[in-house]
Amino acid sequence: MTDATTEDLMIEIRDCNSISEATITLRKSALNIKYGANGVGKSTIARALQLRAQGDGSLDSLVPFKHRGVDGAPSPEVVGADTIKTVLVFDDDYVSRFVFQPDEVLKNSFEVFINTDEYKQGLVQIDSLFQALKDTFSQQEEFDAALTAFTALRDAFGVTKTGAIAKNSRGFKAIGMGGKMAHVPEPLQGYKQFLDSDDPATWITWQSKGKTFLDLSENCPFCSNSGVDKATAKQVSAVYESAAVKNLSALRQVVDQLGDYFEDSKRELLQGLLTSLGELSPEQSIFLTNLREQVQTFLGKLTDLRALSFHTLRDTDDVSALLLDLKIDLPLLDALNSEKSASVVRLINNKLDEIAGRIDELRAELGKQNRRVADLIRTNQDAVNEFLRSAGYRYTVKIEKTNDSYKMIVEHEDSAGHIESAGRHLSYGERNAFALVLFMHHVRKEKPDLVVLDDPVSSFDKTKKYAILHQLFHGKSSIREFTTLLLTHDIEPAIDIVLNPTSGQFAMMKPIAHFLHSRAGTVRESRIDKHHISTFSQICLTNIEASSDDAIKCIYLRRFYEAHGEFGDEYHILSSLLHVRDVAEVKGADGEFAPMTADRLAAGTEKVRQHIPALDYGKVVQELKDPAIVKAKFEATDVGYEKVQLFRLFLSDKTWIKGEDRAFQKFVNESYHIENEYLMQLNPREFDAVPEHVVRECEVRLAEAIK
């Protein structure tokens, strides 16, 4: 266990998924490596810390299956993590939710790469120059409401490609209904009060639905009185279409609301159109078209004025000319040239003149912000692309402008433009490497209390593992100053960061490594220091010396010879012994085994006894033939690796096997036979990485076979 310091958090995780209890330490502002086999509960630890920070009962989703629906069962709990309020986790879920989005390579890439505190401050400086102009809109509440009405008026009249008012637009149909509403046909005069009401469209809809019952009786379906004029009742919906009437009511309301913002004569002409009978004349159509164009121009300028900001000016070469173009020349918009409109336009134009008077200051602030953005784009693009180049990927990222923001896209060397499906073209390892670099920038933006890397490098080949670790934890743009929990079933990160000479490059991370071990749902950790990591050969020799059992000594010595490629007589003697052969044998050219000659046996035995001086071949073989003795040896050791190797000896005698489980036998024979993958590794006597279920299955098989 680690020596606790004031910078360490002691965290207990209880009753979460398969974990009954886990105790781990976290060193603040440091890299915490937790190494353990698959199934030890690493992902549950990450999830528990994340859900604990989220609150709102999120942790309850980790209730173990054995506790679900059980009254009084303990609830999931995380103790000692009160200071961890925010957690950012890199795992498969992060990659699927945030990376390789359809329109950008990283979700909210603007927030991650551009929207820094300096960028925000630059926006504030620029916006302050427009504040007086924008206040003009907010302080003129009546005019602000009128803009909504102007927008509704413009939108009511669609236009054709030639610019004429479209006959299928809501406004055109509403005007067509205006004359009929103003001049109710004689047969329908009895309904005039309803048609002149505040909501005639609703009444017409109601009346239209009721007429379907006219033929059921001679009585009125609305009042049940007799003598109803069915023909007249049916004529209402034939003359008045409810949707057009509704649009007419809305149009009248808009015109009334705008009122004095129109020039008097133009307002009278517009109101007259709302009561005219028949089709619009060519002159009326031209009037409506011109009116809509003036409203569109007026709204366009006002919209641009309200939107004045860094984004609308960032690409403008001549800011003075742009501001001048935004001034409203009201006399040229004769339909809107009323005193009420003029009073507001004067205020707006005066504010624009004030801004123009500070044009040098505005240009300077725009220049600063553009340079700031250019630096951010260059720095962030280069940081990601440098890694992609070093990793041999033919992809690059590019931060490009959008209408009011920026986004990062991914391109391929052979295809310019954003590749929406880049994630599908990358291998699993390549995709994770790419995503990890983006995640690193995400962390620097969000500044979480805890960063969790859930098995981040195990999918990479050996040449990339170190490069990724170096990218993440070395240099100014890394995440070295954050409290980081790296969960892995791969020993190489611990070797690279704790042992190797290059580990000095990670010193600023104050790295600390632990081995996670699980038994019966209880997870504990053991500190991994430099002296714990040894070469394959060192471990074998250390364990030969430490063990008191000659059979176990032979197991490690055979591994030692295998690691060194020494397959002489000494190796064949050990191999024969561990295959429980009465005499040492050698495989001939024909593949058949033959007894070893006396000279070769003597020479080989002499070499073996350099490491195991008192080895008695015959005695050990006789012991291994006795299932009770093998079982006793199995129970005498607490090392999972040694238990599995002894169980393999048990399997060598087929008469001991009750039943047959080929999958389990294959797993035992292959998974824990020869482990030459790493030059460096942990001693299995101190860091038992054999999964608990494997040892448990061996125990069950032995118990069944030897009773």
Automatic annotation (TrEMBL):
Residue intervals of the Protein CR006 P-loop domain: 347-475
InterPro entries, alphabetized: CR006_AAA (IPR026866), P-loop_NTPase (IPR027417)
Key words of the record: Coiled coil, DNA damage, SOS response
Coiled-coil region list: 345-379
PANTHER family named among the record's database cross-references: ATP-DEPENDENT ENDONUCLEASE, OLD FAMILY-RELATED, DNA REPLICATION AND REPAIR PROTEIN RECF
Name of the protein in its database record: AAA family ATPase
Organism in which the protein naturally occurs: Promicromonospora umidemergens
